[in-house]
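Q: what does this look like with zinc ion bound?
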Amino acid sequence: MDIYLTPLKFYNQLLLQNLVAELSKRFSCKINVIDLKVNIDDFFSIDRQQYYSTQILAEVLNLTDHINGKVVLLTDVDLFVPALTFIFGEAQLNGKHAIVSVCRLHEEFYSGISEEKLLFERTIKETLHELGHNYGLRHCLDWDCVMHSSNGIEEVDIKGNTYCTTCAKVIEGYRW
Ligand SMILES: [Zn+2]
Ligand SMILES: [Zn+2]
């Protein structure tokens, strides 16, 4: 079962390339990039100035029946679910679909200073995290594990950039 990265209002080509290269080292399956024709404007909340992530996932669900694998949407837009101020991403537990927003992974968002290496590290962590949920993993208490929950950017930075041995076992063909 391959992994399909799907840019959706996502414009950082270099980050996408680096992500494909890194995931290809770690997973034995093929990492593909696909284009899906999805209009997410309907899921933009004018009140919150953010996109409702669960609705985006539901929309994409209808468009990916022909794909046999994990579909990870990547976006620059800021995401929310009603109970939370924002989310870095969302995934179906033991499912096929996930979404990762890099909006709040940019250091510019906090300090105004651009840090490409840090952006990449944060993006790989959050992508592995949401993919982990797709593979059936729940949150892990080990801070060295990428499946630790992160409610803020400090927690993204503190946690490890790979799965702990227990979590890694769940993902077939993971090699790190
Ligand atoms: Zn999570
Ligand atoms: Zn773990």
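The longest strand covers residues 69-75. The beta strands are 2-7, 31-33, 44-45, 50-52, 69-75, 79-80, 89-91, 97-101.
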